[in-house]
Amino acid sequence: MSISRLILLGIPIAVLALSPGRTMAKSDLFRAVHPAGRIEDQERATDSSAVRKVFSAAEAAIAGGELQGITGFLHAKVFLTLATGENGYYSAEQTLFILRNFFRQHAPLGFSFGNTKIGAESAYGVGFLRYVKRGQQGTAQVFLSLTRTEQGWRIDQITIARR
Fold this sequence. Notes:
There is one protein chain. By secondary structure, the protein is α+β, with helices and mostly antiparallel strands. The chain has one domain (37-162): Nuclear Transport Factor 2, Chain: A (Roll). Helices cover 34% and strands 39% of the residues. It contains 4 helices and 6 strands, in the order αααββαββββ. The protein has a 6-stranded mixed sheet, with helices on one face.
C-alpha cells in the first residue's frame, strides 16, 4: 500500500516529515503521532509513585497498629468493614478511632500487601494481617482501596475480614 493511499484512509503517517536518508526511531514515531506521550508517561510514573507512597504508609500503619502514618491519606468519607461487625461510611476521624479500637483487640504481628493494582482513577491492595487476640493468633485479609482526588490519592475503603 502506498503512502498516498494510507493518507487517503486517514492514517497519520509520521514518515512524511522525514527528509530523504533520515531514519526514525520508534520513540520519534510515537512522538510524531502522539506528541504528549512522554509527558503522559512522566505523569503516570509520578502518579504510580504517589500511590506506592500511600500503600507503603498504610502497610506500615497496619503492621504496627499505629495509624499516624495514614491520617493524611484518608478520604473525607471512608467505607469501613471490619470482622468485628463495624460496617458503613465513616469520617476520617471516626475511621481512625474505630481502627485504633480494632488494633487494641487484634495486636498486629505482621502485615504486607501481597497484591496491588494501580489504575487511572483508583487503586487497590490486598494482603494478610497476622494478629494476636486474647493470646490466640489469627489471620485476616485486608483490602484497601484508593481513589484519586484533587488533593491526591486517598484511602476510601478498608476491609478487614477474618480468614
